[in-house]
Design brief:
single chain, about 475 residues, mainly alpha, two-stranded antiparallel ribbon
Length: about 475
């Protein structure tokens, strides 16, 4: 296992080298400019997310699609992921994670737009979409688009077991074991039973559970973070100063808070930011394509709010909680395993700290597992067809238990590698189809046209299959 872990770590280091960080962050910046700084329409997106669209086609409401996407993003990435970023990248990683969220809003908008525009209907009338269909239908070179679509679907089907499954159950079982001394296999078994009970019902069951859980758990967690920050208010200023200085350190010298360089902060901040908000990965657009929406821009504006809530708000709060603890006199002033670091930071607040952490992490992880089951299932369906859905759900549910009982570092490295592989075909889609994104934004992006109905019919999957030959 140790040798395998070293191999995975080496591959992960190559995948998440400077080239991918530049490509990902560069795409965020490029699409921010190409869309005319779409982030300025964040308020409109938030309003639309709680407004019913009765005119559009789709399987679930826009709010249900958003909460399912948020369920997939608001998970251990917001808690353990932030802790891991700080543990291995230093406090500067918090700023890079936050910037990934701010500019990643444009990428989430772009990838969601093309997912809705190029979606199709399967044999049962359900909507299917995502980067695989955008690549296949949108690119002029249909053969290249089909190959890239297959790669994206393959990486999504596999990545679901990492980012959406094993890391979630692993983080929960580890925290419960540390806090309440409950064996990891018991926590894994409980999670497995809960997940299996919901996943069997498909998207509609998943979306109903997520609609109920996500808003409630997010509010509770944010309020908890606010309480902790109020208690540690005197250390917020020094913490922000440490974060800003560490984010741009060109040399990694010394230890503790100073022992990290710019590349470590950027690498782990951007990687964990992606793990948290998934902007650029192409996962959330898979469920966005199932939303009832009048036009692609409407749903894209709703979808991009997910990155705002996930990273710009929740990840930042977690990061501040951790770093204020580190600079406080009662802090550990050193960096360890990400899970341990988070547990120490929240545990420094009597009674309420560990309760908020354990409660939040359990429900965050549970909802993330549910959301990612749908993403992986759709990737597998693209590759094989509807016959794969039932066995995929069974295997996915079983892996929840496996993830709860294997080493954390290995799980995170596997997840990071698969996330990176998903990014490549997805970014090719948004970059090559950026002209379409700009045109659609001009057509529907103004308030007076946001409710206009896209009259272009959604094609049947059977016709797409015939065209493949």
């Amino acid at each position: 296992m140790e040798k395998f872990g070293q191999i995975v770590s080496t591959i992960n280091g190559w995948v998440w080298g400077p080239w991918l960080l530049i490509l990902l962050f560069g795409t965020h910046l490029y699409l921010t400019i190409r869309t005319g700084f779409i982030q300025k329409k964040l308020g409109l997106g938030i309003r639309l997310s709680v407004t019913k669209d009765a005119t559009g086609e789709g399987d679930v409401s826009q709010f249900a699609a958003l909460t399912t996407a948020l369920a997939s993003t608001i998970g251990t990435g917001n808690i353990i992921g932030v802790g891991t970023a700080v543990a291995v990248g230093g406090p500067g990683a918090v700023l890079w994670m936050w910037l990934t969220g701010v500019f990643g809003i444009a990428t989430k908008y772009a990838e969601s737009l093309i997912a809705v525009k190029y979606r199709v209907k399967n044999e049962k009338g359900a909507m299917l979409g995502g980067a695989m269909f955008a690549l296949e239908r949108g690119l002029k070179n249909k053969k290249a688009g089909r190959i890239l679509g297959i790669l994206f679907a393959l990486f999504a089907a596999l990545a679901a077991f990492g980012i959406g499954d094993m890391t979630q159950s692993n983080a929960v079982s580890g925290l419960v074991a540390e806090t309440f001394k409950v064996p990891t296999w018991i926590t894994g078994l409980v999670l497995t039973i809960f997940v299996g009970a919901v996943v069997i019902g498909g998207l509609k069951w998943i979306s109903k559970v997520c609609e109920a859980i996500v808003p409630f758990m997010s509010i509770i967690y944010v309020l908890g973070c606010i309480i902790i920050l109020i208690i540690n208010a005197r250390y917020i200023g020094p913490a922000i100063s440490v974060i800003l200085k560490a984010a741009f350190n060109t040399r990694a010298v010394g230890g503790g808070l100073a022992g990290f360089g710019l590349m470590a902060a950027a690498r782990f901040g951007i990687a964990r930011g992606l793990f948290s908000n998934e902007s650029g990965m192409g996962s959330a657009p898979i469920v966005a394509s199932a939303a009832k929406t009048a036009n692609p821009v409407r749903q894209a504006l709703v979808s991009m709010t997910g990155t705002f809530w996930d990273t710009v708000i929740i990840c930042l709060m977690t990061g501040l909680v951790i770093v204020t603890y580190e600079v406080a006199p009662n802090g550990s002033a050193h960096f360890e395993n990400g899970g341990t670091l988070v547990h120490e930071a929240f545990g420094s607040i009597p009674v309420i700290g560990t309760i908020i952490l354990t409660f939040g992490l359990f429900f965050f992880a549970f909802s993330t597992i549910l959301g990612w089951s749908y993403y992986g299932e759709r990737g597998a369906e693209y590759l094989v067809g509807t016959n794969i859905i039932a066995p995929y759900r069974v295997i996915y549910t079983a892996v929840v238990f496996v993830g709860a009982t294997i080493p954390l570092n290995l799980v995170w490295n596997i997840a990071d590698t698969l996330n990176g592989l998903m990014i490549l075909p997805n970014l090719i889609a948004v970059l090559l189809l950026s002209g379409v994104i700009v045109a659609e934004t001009k057509k529907y992006g103004n308030v007076e046209h946001i409710d206009d109905v896209d009259t272009e019919p959604v094609p049947d999957l059977t016709d797409i299959k015939k065209a493949r030959g």
